Amino acid sequence: MELTILKSKIHTVKVTEANVEYNGSITVDADLLDAAQIKKYEQVYINNAVNGSRIMTYVLPGKRGSGEVCMNGGAALHAKVGDTVHILSFCKVSEEEADNYEPILVFTKVGNQIASVERYNY
């Protein structure tokens, strides 16, 4: 049996742009994506800590070091500039792998810059 578990989480970033005219997705600073091991076009879930909205979309890499977190297309209807969101990715693992798997957690500071990268270890 395979289980879908948390692969990584970019914790508490601020939306820097909401562009409803774009075709869709979320654009995220490539440094944040690399730290979270999230690939271009990968499916992600976005949880909005301000309005409770939860959506699924895919990622596009933004300019490195920019702190960019841009909600695009329909996703822009679920968050506005300044909202705090969490970006989560998931992976499939065997039951055996799940017992020892430790997801990546990327913490940020002002400007959506990386503060630390840690592994969940419960």
Automatic annotation (TrEMBL):
GO biological process, alphabetically ordered: alanine biosynthetic process; pantothenate biosynthetic process
Amino-acid positions noted as binding substrate in the UniProt annotation, renumbered to this chain: 57, 73-75
Broad EC category: lyase
Pathway linked to the protein: Cofactor biosynthesis; (R)-pantothenate biosynthesis; beta-alanine from L-aspartate: step 1/1
Subcellular locations according to the entry: Cytoplasm
PTM description: Is synthesized initially as an inactive proenzyme, which is activated by self-cleavage at a specific serine bond to produce a beta-subunit with a hydroxyl group at its C-terminus and an alpha-subunit with a pyruvoyl group at its N-terminus.
Gene Ontology, cellular component aspect: cytosol
SUPFAM superfamilies, alphabetized: ADC-like
UniProt GO molecular function: aspartate 1-decarboxylase activity
Keywords on record: Autocatalytic cleavage, Cytoplasm, Decarboxylase, Lyase, Pantothenate biosynthesis, Pyruvate, Schiff base, Zymogen
Matching InterPro entries: Asp_de-COase-like_dom_sf, Asp_decarbox
Pfam family, one: Asp_decarbox
Residue numbers carrying Pyruvic acid (Ser): 25
EC code: 4.1.1.11
Listed NCBIfam families: panD (TIGR00223)
The protein's role, per its UniProt record: Catalyzes the pyruvoyl-dependent decarboxylation of aspartate to produce beta-alanine.
Family: Belongs to the PanD family.
This protein's name: Aspartate 1-decarboxylase
Annotated source species: Parapedobacter koreensis
Taxonomic lineage from the root: Bacteria, Pseudomonadati, Bacteroidota, Sphingobacteriia, Sphingobacteriales
Name of the gene encoding the protein in the UniProt record: panD
